[in-house]
Design brief:
The structure holds two protein chains of two kinds. By secondary structure, chain A is α/β, with parallel strands linked by helices. Chain A has helices at about 45-50, 75-80, 95-110, 125-135, 155-165, 185-200, 210-215, 235-240, 240-255, and strands spanning about 5-15, 15-30, 30-35, 60-65, 65, 80-85, 170-175, 205, 220-225, 230-235. The two termini of chain A are about 30 Å apart. The model of chain A has no long low-confidence stretch (mean pLDDT about 90). In chain B, strands 1-2 form a two-stranded antiparallel ribbon. In chain B, strand 1 and strand 2 form a beta hairpin. The chains are: A alpha/beta, B mainly alpha. Bound molecules: adenosine-5'-diphosphate and magnesium ion. Adenosine-5'-diphosphate binds near residues 39, 41 and 43 of chain A.
């Protein structure tokens, strides 16, 4: 198993408050990794540092062997890191289809493919066709012409997922992919992620609150607590870890 | 976004062009001058709104670029330089100026900081111009001659007001259409992403900074071209061209017409000119009317006039749909 992303001693403070206190993290190529931990542990902050949304105060992030910790976010995207946000972010005043089309054009542009002449009024038919296929992959084919802001919460998340995957990232980072979803939506999302993962074989890192989701998807789990990784291993091993039971799983683990 | 169909936009543009081109044939010279002035201002406002309405960048010092173009062309024409070269120079200088400002400001600033910085820079330029004797100081440059264009063997004299008006209409239309095209193009689609969610744009791999800088340069260049066109029209250029009031006028015109619509700023400019005209004999009335209209716009129609019209249209369409459904069921029922 090769390591595709290797983070060492990541530090991040907001003002004088240290949020990440020297985090080490390895992602194996093709793996599904879950980052768990109580609210406020620093999971989203770690995502921000790994994706380049905010600069780290110290540490290194190597992606396929290359140091990327100083690169701006868009460069990391160009190298193959994709992400979703805890609260789905898509282009709200565009239709679902337009969201995907503009992303396809971006991907082609980044890959140096010919997208068509720059002054074209609309995306090419090939782009539109691919976008429709991608929307139906996540079950949004009937929402293609709906402006994103009118989509339901779950549909927004699906659209964002599709948009992130459109860039064909090597690593996909999902910040709470099932946050705020109903139980049935959650099951659907897990099934969807499993299927997409099997088809594309990208490496996945997700933060998640719901243990069912973690056990349903992940082959490795890391527990972040107050800015420090306190355990990592298979989800089973992590669940049995006494320290983890104490700080995080609490009654949930004892009752399980 | 609700948009009119492309065909209706294009026919609207064509009708407007024909009407505008015919103005010198039926209106008196005073009117020709006023319409020409509105055209220049409309182009200026369109260039500002490329930033605000389409790239998500608000600046409050856009008049500085207008002034750069106006002074360069005014000064050059008085010195007998070639008009076309001067216009080219105005565009280049405006573009370079905004490249510089953009390089300094865009990387670290957004929102109100950027707005205030551009305002401050334009005030600096205003004061510098007002104190530069070579540019006429506070009185500006007067008696700027109307140009003649030399095209190899042919010469086109723009000395008559009507000739200059037509040239102005042609140039403003070409630049406005180029801006329009830009907004519809793939470049424009990326700008729209940036405006709607800059962070998301970054995470589909867009170099947000570079795109905003490009929009900044285009906007600055076109504003300078508008300024350049204004010099031979008014035949006088004063520091007021770069005063903050002028920058804010672009903001107001765009909001009034509808900043979310490409042609909104042009419509807003025309409406403001109309208000100025109707209230011209009552000192202070135009400010009151303008203030009142702005209040109504901001409170009731944040999308501006075009935003209001498009809401009306979508409501009417919905009613029409509902009516159509009634008719349909009305036909079906007896058959059942
Ligand atoms: N922009 C910020 N400025 C200051 N503090 C922040 C900021 N973002 C997050 N924090 C703090 O950092 C801590 C970790 O937050 P976060 O990474 O969102 O946690 P998690 O995603 O694990 O719930 C929290 O205590 C939060 O209040
Ligand atoms: Mg979080």
């Amino acid at each position: 198993m090769t390591v595709i992303l290797e983070a060492r001693d990541i530090r991040k403070s907001y003002g004088a408050v240290p949020i990440l206190k020297g985090v080490d993290l390895d992602l194996t190529r093709g793996g599904t990794h879950a980052l768990i931990g109580p609210n406020g542990a620093g999971k989203t902050t770690l995502f921000k540092v790994l994706t380049g949304e905010t600069p780290a105060n110290g540490g290194s992030v190597r992606f396929s062997g290359k140091e990327i910790v100083k690169l701006p976010a868009f460069r990391r995207v160009q190298q193959g890191i994709g992400r979703t946000f805890q609260v789905a972010r898509v282009f709200m005043e565009m239709t679902a289809l337009e969201n995907i089309m503009v992303t396809i054009e971006r991907r082609m542009r980044m890959a140096g493919e010919k997208v068509g002449v720059w002054y074209d009024f609309r995306p090419s038919p090939a782009v539109r066709k691919e976008a429709m296929i991608r929307l139906s992959e996540v079950g949004l084919e009937n929402r293609a012409e709906t402006e994103a802001r009118y989509l339901s919460h779950g549909d927004k998340k699906r659209l964002e997922l599709s948009l992130s995957l459109t860039l064909e990232p090597e690593i996909l980072m999902l910040d709470e992919p099932t946050a705020g979803m109903s139980q049935s939506d959650r099951h659907e999302t897990v099934a969807l992620l499993k299927r997409l993962k099997a088809e594309r074989g990208f490496t996945m890192l997700m933060t998640e609150h719901d243990m069912d989701v973690v056990f349903g998807l992940a082959d490795a789990a890391m527990v972040l607590n107050y800015g420090e990784i306190i355990a990592c291993g298979t989800p089973e091993a992590v669940r049995r870890d006494p320290l983890v039971r104490e700080v995080y799983l609490g009654q949930e683990a004892t009752s399980a | 976004m609700i948009t009119a169909s492309r065909n209706s936009v294009i026919s609207g543009i064509l009708i407007a062009l024909v009407l505008l081109a015919s103005v010198p044939l039926w209106a008196n010279p005073g009117w020709v001058f006023v319409v020409g002035f509105v055209l220049v201002e409309a182009l200026f406002c369109l260039s500002w709104n490329l930033l605000f309405g389409f790239a998500g960048v608000a600046t409050f010092g856009h008049a500085a670029f207008f002034a750069v173009g106006a002074y360069l062309v005014g000064w050059g024409l008085r010195a007998g330089e070639s008009f076309l070269l001067l216009m080219l120079g105005a565009g280049v200088l405006g573009g370079l100026g905004s490249l510089l400002v953009g390089l300094v400001a865009l990387r670290r600033m957004t929102g109100i900081h950027l707005a205030v910085l551009t305002l401050a820079l334009s005030e600096v330029l205003y004061i510098v111009i007002g104190n530069t004797h070579a540019l006429g100081g506070i009185d500006g440059l007067a008696s700027i001659p109307r140009p003649t264009i030399h095209l190899g063997l042919a010469e086109i004299s723009l000395e008559s007001s009507d000739a200059y008006y037509w040239f102005l209409l042609l140039t403003c239309s070409v630049f406005a259409l180029v801006l329009w095209w830009l907004v519809q193009s793939r470049f424009g689609r990326v700008l729209r992403c940036i405006k709607q969610d800059g962070e998301r744009a970054e995470f589909i791999g867009v170099n947000v900074n570079r795109y905003q800088l490009a929009a900044f340069v285009v906007a600055g260049a076109v504003a300078a071209v508008a300024g350049g066109l204004s010099a031979p029209l008014t035949q006088i250029v004063t520091p007021a061209a770069g005063y903050w009031m002028h920058s804010i006028q672009a903001v107001l015109n765009s909001l009034l017409g509808g900043a979310g619509f490409f042609w909104g700023p042009a419509l807003g400019t025309a409406i403001f000119a109309g208000i100025d005209f109707v209230t011209r004999t009552f000192a202070g009335l135009s400010e009151v009317v303008v203030g009142g209209i702005l209040l109504v716009i901001v409170l009731a129609f944040p999308g501006g006039v075009l935003g209001f019209l498009s809401t009306l249209k979508s409501r009417r369409d919905r009613n029409a749909d509902a009516a159509a459904n009634v008719v349909e069921t009305g036909l079906k029922e007896p058959a059942e």
